[in-house]
Amino acid sequence: MSLPTRTGRNERDFVLEDAEFEVIRQLVRQHTGIALSDSKRELVYSRLVRRLRRLGMDNFGDYIDLLQTGPDEELEEFSNAITTNLTAFFRENHHFEYLTETALPMLQKRNAASRRLRIWSAGCSTGEEPYSIAMVLQAEMSRFAGWDVRILATDIDSQVLGHAMAGRYAADRVERVPSRYARCFTANDDGTHSIRADVQSLISFRQLNLMQPWPMRGPFDIIFCRNVVIYFDKPTQVELFGRISSLQREGDYLFVGHSESLFKVCDRYDLIGKTAFRRLPG
Ligand SMILES: C[S@@+](CC[C@H](N)C(=O)[O-])C[C@H]1O[C@@H](n2cnc3c(N)ncnc32)[C@H](O)[C@@H]1O
Question: pTM of the predicted model, to two decimals?
Answer without folding.
Answer: 0.94
